[in-house]
Design a protein that fits this description.
Radius of gyration: 19 Å
Largest sheet: 9 strands, mixed
Low-confidence stretches: none
Helix content: 25-40%
CATH class of the largest domain: Alpha Beta
Bound molecules: S-adenosylmethionine
CATH topology of the largest domain: Rossmann fold
Distance between the termini: 44 Å
Order of helices and strands: HHHEHEHEEHEHHHEEHEHE
Mean pLDDT: 95
Oligomer: single chain
Length: 274
């Protein structure tokens, strides 16, 4: 942990993203997720004129797909080690840059300069609630009006299911056993949280299985996420990370239990009548 600053769940997360074994893990993942591929295909005609900000770029998994297709690509991460990994993999040029920068404070960027902002693979989920709202505000500030913002976030509906012993039964006894063990560990690590509390919450910060249960991760219900976004973004579309099928109806959104969801929306400036 840096300096003598107070240790918070968010600062614990940051320390994890600076550790050597985690950098190595992100250096080894290369594929786009199905929803990301759909977004790339959909934007491909526009990318050559777009200035893109890739937030929480990690070791550059998305860089390889976007940097040569966009007019100007900037990747940022609050982990200096992640940024070093990017610079080694993708040497900087006039139109491809990397910077250590925290999404909670994008002061190094002027207002309304990006056409496309990506915060992929749930990177927004590693800060607390107030900081998450600050990030959304900052992203809106640096987006051009009409600019696209795309990100994914963990789905509390999925966590609710994983947290329930009753939902773990399968015809396959090995699957049942494995599921029950995971639920037991989650319950232990997230004490004194209980199922009723999760059912009654629109978001929660929890320890899940990622990176060996070390991260503190924000999970949110899709309808609540849409609400958070709607102050600054319009035309909000949502997709499971697993495919390119949009979840359109309220019923589909409420029923979805995929672990994370992609959100695709457009930045707008509120007029006096909005
Ligand atoms: C789950 S990893 C994903 C990395 C990369 N986007 C990928 O898909 O492979 C999340 C990344 O977001 C970064 N991150 C988390 N919170 C951040 C913040 N507040 N500002 C900038 N980067 C952040 C972490 O350092 C980490 O590299």
């Amino acid at each position: 942990m840096k300096n003598n600053s107070i240790v918070t769940p968010a600062s614990q997360n940051q320390a994890i993203y600076e550790s050597a074994n985690i950098i190595k893990y992100y250096e080894q993942i290369n594929d786009l997720q199905p929803a990301e591929q759909m977004i790339l295909d959909r934007l491909s005609a526009h990318l050559p004129t777009m200035k893109m900000l890739d937030i929480g770029v990690g070791a550059g998994r998305t860089t390889q797909y976007f940097c040569d297709r966009t007019a100007h690509y900037i990747g940022i991460d609050y982990s200096p080690e992640m940024i070093n990994a990017c610079k080694q993999r993708f040497p900087e040029t006039v139109k491809r840059q990397f910077q250590v920068c925290d999404a909670r404070d994008l002061h190094c960027f002027e207002d309304q300069q990006f056409d496309f902002i990506l915060f992929s693979f749930n990177g927004i989920d590693y800060v607390d609630h107030v900081d998450r709202l600050t990030i959304l505000k900052e992203i809106h500030r640096v987006s051009k009006p009409g600019g696209i913002f795309c990100f994914s976030s963990h789905n509390l509906q999925s966590f609710e299911r994983t947290f329930s012993f009753k939902s773990q039964w399968s015809w396959n006894p090995i699957v049942t056993y494995t599921n029950l063990v995971v639920t037991g560990i989650l319950r232990l690590l997230n004490r004194p949280m209980n199922l009723a509390e999760i059912k009654n919450s629109s978001y929660k910060i929890v320890k899940d299985e990622s990176h060996n249960f070390r991260l503190n991760t924000y999970y949110i219900r899709p309808l609540e996420q849409i609400d958070q976004l709607s102050q600054h973004f319009k035309d909000i579309q949502i997709y499971s990370w697993k495919n390119d099928i949009e979840l359109v109806s309220q019923a589909d959104r409420l029923a979805n239990i995929d672990q994370w969801i992609y959100y695709y929306c457009t930045s707008f400036i509120q007029g006096p009548d909005d």
